[in-house]
Each structure stands twice: as C-alpha cells, then as structure tokens.
C-alpha cells in the first residue's frame, strides 16, 4: 500500500473511477433483482405454487385466458384452490399518477380475502371496522369499490370512503392493504367485473394462481402440471420461480443492467491496470533491490497482486455504500415508490465483491508479469 500512497491523487482518481464502476453494477443489478424479487413476492406472500398463463404468449403478463378456467382448475386432483387475476395498468389523471398496477379479483375468492384488507385509520386513530363476506357474489355496489396498496394510498393521500376517478367513472376507496411484496403495496385491487368492463376485457383473465394440496410431494408437482395443461392446450402451468425468471420483462431488465454495467467495468479495469503498471514502473529500482537480496519472483508478483486487490475491494465497499444510498433515495420518491427495493440484497453485495476481486486480479496480471521479468542488474540501474 505504501506505493499507492506515494501518489495519493492518482490513487484517489483510480479509486473513484473503480468505485463508480462497481457501484453502477451493484445499483443496476440491484434494481433488476429487486424488481424480480418484488414480483416474486406477489406469489410467495399468498403461498402460490403454480401460475397458469396462456401457452405461446410473447408476454405472459398480458396473456388472455377465459375467466371460467379457475373453477375448472380447482377440480383437478392435487389442487387445493385456484384464483384468477386480470392484470392491467391504470392511471389517475386528476392526480397525475400514471402506470399504476391494477389487479382484478373476484371478491368471493380466497385470494381477495388473503389480502386481509384493512380500513384506513382516521385522525383520532380509531379503526373503522369493515366486514367483508367472502361468500357473497359481486354486486353492483361492490363493483364500484377499489382497494389501495398502502404505498399507493399514502401517495394519493386517500382514505376509506374517498372518491377516485378511473376512466371518468367514480370509485369509492373500500380499504387499504399491506402486502409482503413492494410491488403489490403500490398497486390497486378492483373487483374482476369492474376491471374487465373498464379495460374492455370482459370474460378474460391474465393468469391464474394455483395453490397445491399439502399432500402433494415435490416430485408429484410435474404430474399436477400435466393434469392442468390437459384441461386445455392453451394453458401453460409453471412453478412461481420459473414463471418470474422466464418472464420477458425480467430477462430484459437483467440483460440491460449487465450490458450497461460492462462499459463501466471496462473503464474501471483499465484504470486499475494503468495505476498498477505505473506503480511497477516507478518502483523498478526497488524491485531490483528486492530481487538482488533474494526475493523470489512469486513474492514480488504477490505484492503487486495484493495492492491491486486491496484497491479494488476498497472501491467495492465505497461503490456499494454509494449504490445503497442512491437506491434508498430513489425508492423514497413518488415515481419509484412501490417498485424499487430500498436496499441492496446480500447476493448483490457478494457479486459486487467478486467483480471487484476479479478486476483487481485482472488489472494486476500485466504489471505483476512485468515486475517478475525485471532482471536485478537492469532494475538496479534505475535505482542508481
């Protein structure tokens, strides 16, 4: 490290460039992974085992299924319950809030009851009791009611009983809900018939959530999948993890994050290479002395490698902290609330450390090789 401190300004610039590169990678990958984890939480929070969508859909989140499939799927051996979801994106024009995820659910389904809808707390901090009868069919009055995720309700500053305009139609806020998924907390729930009417998708669903019977073993899941797909050739049943991981939006987000990060990593690697090569050239005489007193080439190379790795790991720490602060700030903004995770997952930190370690090693290979090829007598000329 002494050699790096000899040129503090140069070391600082290299550290800043490398920290920016690694921090960019961690931020972009963290956003992509956080989005996927948030969407995966939509299913995990309701213990969904399988997701059924339309076979051959280019975009599974905009697929179309008949809304009578959940009832047929519920009768399949090994299925405990099934609930259909119509997924759309709506906007509240008068509040200039756009791109709100909207889920259409039957109000008599287990999935609707599973959200544990809670009424808004008034100024006196008294909870207004709201009774929901999950066995009752959807009526006209219920069809004009919407339910807001807590993040969306806070963003809209809405409470139970407030009126919200959707496509110039008035809806009453019937309650708010808190989910284990950040994505859902920024969404709204409408009765299925209401969302179908608003979007012109009468009789349609986007996908169907399926919960398997507790007696179904892991090795029997494929058999249940075959039974579900045998109902109709248009059906595609996938485990929740596979449904999320193979979604085109998730794959594009991950690919774009890594493609953008590759440029930053290249700049960081070149900066590290330049710093370590210059350090070796400036220490030619010192290296000659070490070789003359008996230091083996392996030990000389190890010093160069160690300095480069320490520089890279320090940059990883600084870049990771910067990325975490940036994501925390972004996730608190109105436009990103309910979409971005406010922190970086441990897996992203591990990948960042591995990238930093890799850059440190790669950036030191050529300088270390240069140091080991110096002949003691030639190096000592520089000392003199």
Keywords summarizing the entry:
two-stranded antiparallel ribbon; 17% strand; alpha+beta; 384 residues
Cα-to-Cα separation, first versus last residue: 24 Å
* Structural class by secondary-structure content: alpha+beta
Number of beta strands: 11
Please outline the major beta sheet. Answer: 9 strands, mixed
Membrane topology: Multi-pass membrane protein
Main location: membrane
Protein name: Putative ABC transport system permease protein
Subcellular location: Cell membrane
Summarize the structure.
Keywords: Cell membrane, Membrane, Transmembrane, Transmembrane helix. The protein has 384 residues and is of the alpha+beta class.
Topology:
Layout: H1 2-6, H2 8-44, E1 50-54, E2 65-66, H3 69-74, E3 79-92, E4 97-105, H4 110-114, E5 145-149, H5 150-156, E6 163-166, E7 169-177, H6 182-185, E8 188-191, H7 192-199, E9 204-205, E10 207-212, H8 221-231, E11 235-239, H9 240-245, H10 248-282, H11 284-292, H12 297-331, H13 346-372, H14 376-383
Parallel strand pairs: 4-8, 5-7
Antiparallel strand pairs: 1-10, 1-11, 2-9, 3-4, 3-10, 5-8, 6-7
Helix pairs in contact: 2-10, 2-12, 2-13, 10-13, 11-14, 12-13
How does this structure look, described?
53% of the residues lie in helices and 17% in strands. By secondary structure, the protein is an alpha+beta fold. The chain has 2 domains: 2-39 and 251-383, no CATH class; 56-233, no CATH class. The strands form 2 sheets. Strands 6-7-5-8-4-3-10-1-11 form a 9-stranded mixed β-sheet. Strands 2-9 form a two-stranded antiparallel sheet. A hairpin with a 4-residue loop joins β3 (79-92) and β4. α10 packs parallel to α13 (346-372) and α12 (297-331) packs antiparallel against α13 (346-372).
